[in-house]
Amino acid sequence: MQKNKFLGKLSKALIVLTLLVFPFCGQSPAEPAKIEIIDFVIELEDLSDRSIQVKDIQQFKEKYPRFFALWFSEIMDYKKFQGFSDSFLTSNFSRLIQVNRPVFRALNAHYSKYPNWNESLNQQWGNLQRDFPGTSTPKVFAYFSQFSNYNTFYDSTNDQVILGYSKEMFMNDTFPLYAMLEVPEFFNRYNDPKQIPTMLIWNYLSSKYKPLHNPENMLGQAVLDGKIWALLIHISDQKNPHLNLGYTEEEWAFMERDQGQMWKLFLQNDLLYSKNFNDYVRFFVYGNKTFASGVPPECPPMIGCFIGLKIIQKYMDETDCTWAELFSETDANKILRLSGYNPAR
């Protein structure tokens, strides 16, 4: 998935960032996980110099049953050919792979510059398993989505955790095909290969915990997203957590500085306990900015998630709870009350 005018205050902002964003430092890194990462794009490239046969697709089905079913049917949308002959489907797929040979070569050249992102993923997942004992080790697939904006996916069918990332969606903001294909500009916030670990774990945590929390109002949504952001920061190397989440230093400093103004806006407009998603969705959606009445035009996106992060950081500081205890507490109003968070004072 993506990436001012406060340069004169940058030094002060960095001090604030250090004090407020790193409240969970001090814990030694855990033993890194040992995640199997399968580069399915390389296997496609190996077939791109010839016509793919029906048997090739069958072999993929046997080799990667769950992943291939999801990728082929949902991401590449071949479910639309249901009822067509195997030969027609295979011929169509073969042409698609051959046409994308130049993209496969570009991917190889690009990722050769970022050989260590998988080490970061293993370390972060190891840290996650330290804080949530019993968390299984996933299998990760690198896939090709033909620029369909499938950045990452998560699947836990049959209790096997599968994570995937679309290689061509992490090519940095200078990749010329993004503009040609009109990929939304905000994806530039999340297209650095170094962000792949965060994007994968973000998707995993969101998919795992949203059904359990089932947020019913804006506060519930902010608290859930705040938990996820806080945990992502905690398990990361914490050198540049704002970059992992898709923000510049200046944007993060803006949100730190103006959180009181935003909190007042939520209260004054009776948004905090609104159960109408359309009332507050604009504060949680991906984009370049947060667009809403009363919001400064330079406000970064997903300000609601940031407010949730600050609530959670205060709550953990006040209650000294564990991460498992934090995620088992689903009463957002209780969390707000015990946190004492009120930046509008």
Keyword list:
4 strands; single chain; globular; 345 residues; 16 helices; 2 domains; 4-stranded mixed β-sheet; mainly alpha
What does this structure look like?
There is one protein chain. The chain has two domains: 7-26 and 214-339, no CATH class; 36-204, no CATH class. Helix content is 52%, strand content 5%. The chain has helices spanning 10-21, 40-47, 54-63, 65-75, 86-99, 101-111, 117-131, 176-180, 196-213, 218-235, 241-244, 249-268, 277-280, 303-319, 323-328, 332-339, and strands spanning 36-39, 139-143, 152-155, 162-166. Helix 1 packs across helix 12, helix 3 (54-63) packs across helix 4 (65-75) and helix 9 packs antiparallel against helix 10. It is globular, with a radius of gyration of 22 Å. Residues 1-25 have low confidence and may be disordered.
Count of helical segments?
Answer: 16
**Given the helix and strand composition, which structural class is it?**
mainly alpha
Share of helical residues? 40-55%
Helix-strand string: HEHHHHHHEEEHHHHHHHHH
Taking pLDDT < 50 over at least 5 consecutive residues as the criterion, the unreliable ranges are: 1-25
Work out the radius of gyration: 22 Å
Which percent band covers the strand fraction? 5-15%
Q: Please tell me the total number of domains.
A: 2
Biggest β-sheet: strands ordered side by side in the sheet = 1-2-4-3
Number of strands: 4
